[in-house]
Each structure stands twice: as structure tokens, then as C-alpha cells.
What does this fold into?
Amino acid sequence: MIRYAAIGDSLTAGVGDLFGGGFVPKYGRYIQEAIQQPVTYDKIGFPGARSAYILTVIRSDNKVRDILQHADIITLTVGGNDLVDAAKAFAVQQNDEPFRQALVNCKHNFAGILSTIRQLKSGRNPYLIRAVDLYNPSPSLPESDYWVKRFNQHLESFEDGNMKVANIFNSFKGRERALLWIDHLHPNARGYQVIAEALHDQGYTPFSL
It folds into this structure.
């Protein structure tokens, strides 16, 4: 039995995929096919959550901590709302400071999230962490592309033996109309399928044969 825990913002919650549940059940099926074991999953998604909130939950919610402690595979979607807030502030202030501050905050909080998960997993069996990078829902705003790429580069700097980043930025680039929901912010069913495939592409070592 493989235990899969997904924690994060509205992407983890599956907002925009009304009947399919987002990428979590889709990725769960990929896990089952690849590892040839039954998969159970816990979906802990907080629409609108910023990185600081997710860090607080992981540090203080005992139920969430127990789920993560016993999970074999963990996915993270963090940072999108921080950058959305920064984009709104940029539109008012017309300077890069909101983006710069969001980047600093996200890096600090993501480091805390990973550190806390690793403390919970200390001495446990092998496990995988998969983070999902950010796509740009506002490609018409030139500054947003730059800062989303900067965020994704920071995310990739955390990669190591058991933590990898699923790249969806390039998959969504130029395909926003096809992959985003009617709110032009969250993925639709096709978009979430792209996310599940990107996670799947990162492999399952040491679980897979």
C-alpha cells in the first residue's frame, strides 16, 4: 500500500476541475500504475492559502503532521497566491518591490516547509517529495513572466535526491486558453491532467522497479 499526501493551495484542492478532483486523483492513478500497488491519498488543499499559512499548518496541525509522517509520496503546491498578491500590488505601486518581497517570503517559507517535513520523516522508510512549479496565468503582464521564472528557479534550488520539481510553466506557456478554467486563473480538467503528467515524469525511484 502506497500512501500519498497532497498539501497546498487551490491547485491541490482542485479548483477549476468540477468533477475530476484536480491533479491529485489523476496522479494517484499514475502512482498505482507505476508501482503496481494500491494507493490511498489525503488531499489537504486550502484555496487562497499563502506559503506562510501552509507552513503554519504543517508545523502546528497534528492531524496534518500525522498524515505527512506516514506518507510515502508527498506533493506540494505553494507560492501561487503570494505571487498573485504581488502582481496586484505591482499594478498599484508600479515597482518591483512586491515581487521581490514575495520571492524572499516564499523561499523562506518553502525552506521551512521542507525542513519540517524532513523532521517528520526522520528515520522513516524512503519517501518522495514532489513540488509543482508555477505557470503564469497573466502572460500579458511582462513582469509576471520574469518573476514566475525567478520563483521557479528558487524552487528548483531545493531539489535533491528525494525532492524534485515538476515543471508545468513551459507546458502552460502559450496554451493558457486551452488549459485554464473560466476564471483564467486555475487549471481546468486538461490543465490538471498536464500537472499529473509532469509529476509522473519525475519518476518513482526507489519505489518503482
In short: The CA atoms of residues 68 and 117 lie 7 Å apart. The chain is about 55% helix and 15% strand.
